[in-house]
């Protein structure tokens, strides 16, 4: 398995006001889309793991992947709008909600999965994570 899970709030979405009203209100964390693309280019499958609705995140991604790409002007965006070309492709990857209950692993390449179900991964990237070594260290650090 060559899969990496990334938390959404505080890692991809800036989340400057915390949960606030439950909406996804902020811009992406600088470098998040470029890093996801790089991880995929290195052969990793990548998915977002969040307690939020995966469809809410997908909607935000569809908008923000256009907004932050410095290579594409507003005119270039208009060229693709309404076409069959997937707008996420401008970053070199597409995104997809993992909604099927039978999916046990995320192995798709060049597709950013989005789920609220914990799937196996070699690493979980999270701004609120605590690296576990042993329980004594946990008690000292919290």
Major sheet summary line: 5 strands, parallel
- Termini, distance in Å? 32 Å
Strand order of the largest sheet: 3-4-2-1-5
**How many strands?**
5
CATH topology description: Rossmann fold
Number of helical segments with 4 or more residues: 4
Low-confidence stretches: 84-88
Average predicted local confidence, pLDDT: 86
- Write the element-wise H/E pattern from the N-terminal end onward: EHEHHEEEH
Overall domain count: 1
What is this entry, summarized?
By secondary structure, this protein is α/β, with parallel strands linked by helices. It has helices at residues 32-41, 54-67, 74-80, 135-141, and strands at 3-7, 45-49, 94-97, 111-115, 123-125. Helix 1 links the parallel strand 1 (3-7) and strand 2 (45-49).
Quick tags:
142 residues, alpha/beta, Rossmann fold, five-stranded parallel beta sheet, 5 strands
Report on this structure.
Mean pLDDT is 86; it is low at 84-88. The chain has 142 residues and is of the alpha/beta class. The chain has four helices and five strands. It is globular and about 45 Å long. 27% of the residues lie in helices and 15% in strands. The protein has helices at 32-41, 54-67, 74-80, 135-141, and strands spanning 3-7, 45-49, 94-97, 111-115, 123-125. A five-stranded parallel beta sheet has the order 3-4-2-1-5, covered by helices on one side. The protein has a single domain (3-141), classed as Rossmann fold.
